[in-house]
Amino acid sequence: MLCRVMGAPVEEGTDRNGCTMGPRALREAGLAKALSALGHDVEDWGDIARLDLESPEHPNAAVRNLSAVASWTRSIADAVHSAADGCFPIFLGGDHSISMGTVSGLARRAAESGRPLFVMWIDAHSDFHTLDTTESGNLHGVPLAYLCGLPGFDGYLPDLPVSISPSRVCAFGLRSVDDAERLALTDAGVFACDMSMIDRQGVVPPLNEFLERVRAEDGLLHVSLDVDFLDPSIAPAVGTTVPGGATFREAHLVMELLHESGLVTSLDVVELNPNLDQSGQTAHLMVDLVASLCGRRILSRSTKAA
Length: 306
Prior knowledge:
This protein has ten helices and eight strands. It is α/β, with parallel strands linked by helices and 306 residues long. It has a single domain, classed as Arginase, Chain A (3-Layer(aba) Sandwich), CATH 3.40.800.10. Helix 6 links the parallel strand 5 (169-174) and strand 6.
């Protein structure tokens, strides 16, 4: 498999500095080496450059960095549409606002191929606010609503050539959802799997249910993996930590099941903030999870002697 790596050093969707260094940290943690060791060919296309767009001010005064995020969204979408052919693309964030660009570019390409795009949003947060409902104003909290075509984005963020049907979205691992998002998720029909469901059922039944939906429609599956899906005790390098996240083994099992499905066609790795890491702990864990998604298994994973 050809893995094509592209960085998106975006931090304007957050209220903290540091995510711009995420792509470099993932590279330095050995991403290319880990993929090559699995027999994959790796091309690193470097970081996407931002072109500048101007967006009007939004009536919600809390909204921050709208023009910058709009510029990144258009730049990333165009780059992804051009580069995501004939490969397994891996996009390194950057905050989760990069997915407004990555997924919109992939959705265009999927439509051109005549196949539907499904999205597995692996995140503590649903990111289902609109520009009208966000209270923090941080635009890494709106991408899934934007991609699903919820109203209120026209004229502020780039027009979506192809939106994602909410019925083709799984928000997996949720544990911090605002009231407005909860109502919107239900109304839209997103398959929402929170940590309570995972506690009761484990990761396998809800994940398999969603994968069967993808398989039934011969869909393409994009995985958007946020660091804060993981419990902060094992992944501290994220600005939006929420206690009670996935354990090391739960996270690896999810990645292994996704690989075994044969359905995943692209990947985001987002919200890594190296300023908050401890000796590269989180960056190395994220690389390890990407390797599991791309075929590495426990019996082939090297261990250090005690």
